[in-house]
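Below is a concrete protein record.
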Amino acid sequence: MITPKQRAQLKALANPIEPAFQVGKGGVSDTQTAQIDDYLRVHELVKIKVLDNSMYTAAEAAAEIARSISAEVVQVIGSKAVLYKRNEKEPVIRLVNK
Protein backbone atom coordinates (compact mmCIF):
# COMPACT_ATOMS: atom_id res chain seq x y z
CA MET A 1 0.00 0.00 0.00
CA ILE A 2 1.39 3.37 -0.97
CA THR A 3 1.06 6.44 1.24
CA PRO A 4 -0.42 9.76 0.08
CA LYS A 5 3.08 11.27 -0.19
CA GLN A 6 4.27 8.35 -2.29
CA ARG A 7 1.14 8.64 -4.47
CA ALA A 8 1.91 12.33 -5.03
CA GLN A 9 5.49 11.44 -5.98
CA LEU A 10 4.30 8.79 -8.45
CA LYS A 11 1.76 11.21 -9.97
CA ALA A 12 4.56 13.71 -10.58
CA LEU A 13 6.73 11.03 -12.20
CA ALA A 14 3.83 9.85 -14.39
CA ASN A 15 2.84 13.30 -15.61
CA PRO A 16 5.31 13.57 -18.53
CA ILE A 17 5.10 9.96 -19.74
CA GLU A 18 2.94 8.91 -22.66
CA PRO A 19 0.49 5.99 -22.44
CA ALA A 20 2.27 2.71 -23.18
CA PHE A 21 -0.89 0.61 -23.59
CA GLN A 22 -4.44 1.09 -24.85
CA VAL A 23 -7.62 -0.68 -23.84
CA GLY A 24 -10.08 -0.81 -26.73
CA LYS A 25 -13.40 -2.42 -27.52
CA GLY A 26 -11.97 -5.88 -26.83
CA GLY A 27 -11.52 -4.97 -23.18
CA VAL A 28 -8.65 -6.21 -21.04
CA SER A 29 -7.19 -9.49 -22.28
CA ASP A 30 -4.93 -11.89 -20.41
CA THR A 31 -2.20 -11.26 -23.00
CA GLN A 32 -2.40 -7.52 -22.52
CA THR A 33 -2.36 -7.92 -18.75
CA ALA A 34 0.78 -10.08 -19.00
CA GLN A 35 2.44 -7.46 -21.22
CA ILE A 36 1.62 -4.71 -18.73
CA ASP A 37 3.04 -6.86 -15.90
CA ASP A 38 6.27 -7.37 -17.88
CA TYR A 39 6.46 -3.63 -18.59
CA LEU A 40 6.01 -2.86 -14.89
CA ARG A 41 8.81 -5.26 -13.96
CA VAL A 42 11.20 -2.99 -15.85
CA HIS A 43 9.68 0.48 -15.43
CA GLU A 44 7.52 0.15 -12.27
CA LEU A 45 5.16 2.87 -13.58
CA VAL A 46 2.85 2.70 -16.59
CA LYS A 47 0.20 4.95 -18.09
CA ILE A 48 -2.73 3.31 -19.85
CA LYS A 49 -5.27 4.94 -22.14
CA VAL A 50 -8.82 3.61 -22.42
CA LEU A 51 -10.31 4.32 -25.83
CA ASP A 52 -13.82 5.75 -26.28
CA ASN A 53 -15.08 2.54 -27.90
CA SER A 54 -14.08 0.42 -24.88
CA MET A 55 -16.74 -1.19 -22.72
CA TYR A 56 -14.68 -0.14 -19.67
CA THR A 57 -14.15 3.20 -18.03
CA ALA A 58 -10.55 4.05 -17.19
CA ALA A 59 -11.21 3.36 -13.50
CA GLU A 60 -12.74 -0.05 -14.22
CA ALA A 61 -9.92 -1.09 -16.56
CA ALA A 62 -7.24 0.10 -14.12
CA ALA A 63 -8.88 -1.72 -11.21
CA GLU A 64 -9.18 -4.97 -13.17
CA ILE A 65 -5.57 -4.85 -14.40
CA ALA A 66 -4.22 -3.87 -10.97
CA ARG A 67 -6.16 -6.68 -9.27
CA SER A 68 -4.92 -9.33 -11.68
CA ILE A 69 -1.22 -8.37 -11.48
CA SER A 70 -1.11 -7.09 -7.86
CA ALA A 71 -0.34 -3.50 -8.85
CA GLU A 72 -1.50 -0.20 -7.35
CA VAL A 73 -3.74 2.29 -9.14
CA VAL A 74 -1.96 5.61 -8.67
CA GLN A 75 -4.51 7.82 -10.39
CA VAL A 76 -7.26 7.92 -12.99
CA ILE A 77 -7.93 11.10 -14.94
CA GLY A 78 -10.38 11.07 -17.81
CA SER A 79 -9.48 8.22 -20.13
CA LYS A 80 -6.01 7.63 -18.66
CA ALA A 81 -4.87 5.61 -15.68
CA VAL A 82 -1.49 5.20 -13.99
CA LEU A 83 -0.41 1.93 -12.36
CA TYR A 84 2.56 1.21 -10.11
CA LYS A 85 4.15 -2.09 -9.16
CA ARG A 86 7.42 -2.17 -7.24
CA ASN A 87 10.18 -4.41 -8.54
CA GLU A 88 11.42 -6.10 -5.37
CA LYS A 89 14.72 -7.30 -6.88
CA GLU A 90 15.84 -4.16 -8.75
CA PRO A 91 13.75 -1.10 -7.77
CA VAL A 92 13.82 1.72 -10.32
CA ILE A 93 11.82 4.31 -8.39
CA ARG A 94 12.91 5.26 -4.89
CA LEU A 95 9.78 6.29 -3.00
CA VAL A 96 9.81 8.71 -0.10
CA ASN A 97 9.24 7.19 3.32
CA LYS A 98 6.04 8.32 5.00
Q: What stands out?
A: The first helix runs from residue 4 to 14. Helices lie at 4-14, 30-43, 58-69.
